[in-house]
Amino acid sequence: MTSEASLDQQVDTAARTVYSSSYTIALVGAGISVESGVPPFRGPGGLWTKHGEPPMDGYQRFLADPRAWWADVLSRQGEHSEFKKALEEAKPNLAHLAMADLEKMGFLKHTITQNIDNLHQEAGSVAITEIHGNRLKLRCIECNARWRLGELPTDEVPPRCPHCKGIVKTDTVMFGEPIPLDALESCQRESRLCDCMLLVGTSAVVYPAAEFPVIAYRQGAKLIEINPMETPLSGVSAVVLRAPAGEVMPKLVERLKQLAAPGV
Ligand code: APR
Fold first, then answer.
1. Ligand 1 in contact with 231 (CB < 6 A)?
2. N or C: which end of the chain has fewer CB within 10 A?
3. What is the pLDDT of residue 202?
4. Residue with the nearest Cα to atom 7 of ligand 1?
5. Which of 255, 229, 250 lies closest to 240, judged by CA?
6. Is residue 4 over pLDDT 90?
7. Does residue 114 line the site of ligand 1, with CB under 6 A?
8. What's residue 80's pLDDT?
């Protein structure tokens, strides 16, 4: 782990990089929610590390029999897997709150999150693209219309979209499911617009999300990595903050407040 002094120096460099950038965005992964009690997928304590990766054809099995899929989901509503329980009990941590502050201060223009946990919204962030969906929403697989749970009746299964009669499923993107086009286009647009990208708590190995830092980097954007562990992007990052997000992000906000203060 990085010494306190050198971490503070890195935080200062990161803050100056964000301060001198005109369009900073963030790509966020499971690591940001670890300090909210939600396990990551890979690495120490990762769900896939412990239980192995799930089958990659979840979506194909859904399409094969959406009625059976829904009947199964509704029948298991009372069940609480380790992950589901952690998601239901999780609260935003200091890193989520700091990102909402950076957005309110005008330094963070957009957040691309791979997380389905809704913790950014609960922390007050607004400019968000959820590339893997949101656990509290439903989505039409034809027109991408979305509803909060409870807004669309599920007594008829599979529920049908009132706009296009398409089949409705949970908004979270299943293995084997294409990323909804509106979300993908938003991520690509923001990645092309940015001149600085924060990489917060992602192993950067899952595509298409791992492509966005490459799009940004290739057009000259500075990458700032916030992660206790090395990733494939560490080598191309302008600044690396090798510490938990909950420790680093509040320091980044404080340093930017100082830089933005008049007469500094
Ligand atoms: N602060 C910052 N980063 C952390 C912290 C922390 N407190 N704790 C762990 N990390 C880092 C780990 O070092 C790792 O690099 O977070 C990363 C988590 O990586 P993954 O578990 O692979 O999560 P992610 O990158 O979001 O995975 C992408 O894979 O399985 C799919 O759909 C799933 O959205 C997920 C996608």
1. yes
2. C
3. 98
4. 244
5. 229
6. no
7. yes
8. 66
For 144, left (φ over 0), alpha (ψ -120 to 50), or beta? Answer: left
Q: What is the mean pLDDT of the chain?
A: 95
- Give, using CA atoms, the residue closest to atom 16 of ligand 1: 31
Helix or strand or coil: residue 91? coil
Nearest CA to ligand 1 atom 3: 201
154-211 pLDDT per residue, tens: 888 999 999 999 999 999 999 999 999 999 999 999 999 999 999 999 999 999 999 9
The atom number, within ligand 1, closest to the CA of 40 reads 21
- Report yes or no on whether pTM surpasses 0.70: yes
Compute the distance between CA of residue 264 and CA of residue 256 in angstroms, rounded to an integer: 11
How far apart, in whole angstroms, are the C-alpha atoms of residue 13 and residue 19? Answer: 10
78 pLDDT tier (thresholds 50, 70, 90): low
Residue 110's pLDDT band, with cuts at 50, 70 and 90, is very high
Report, as residue numbers or ranges, the catalytic residues: 132
Given the CA of residue 47, which atom of ligand 1 is nearest to it? 21
Residue 2 confidence (pLDDT):
59
Tokens 């409705």 correspond to 168
Nearest to 149 by CA among 119, 169, 131, 129: 169
CA 243 – ligand 1 centroid, Å = 13
Tokens for 253? 């906000």
Q: Are 241 and 10 in contact (CB under 8 A)?
A: yes
Q: Is the CB of 245 under 6 A from ligand 1?
A: yes
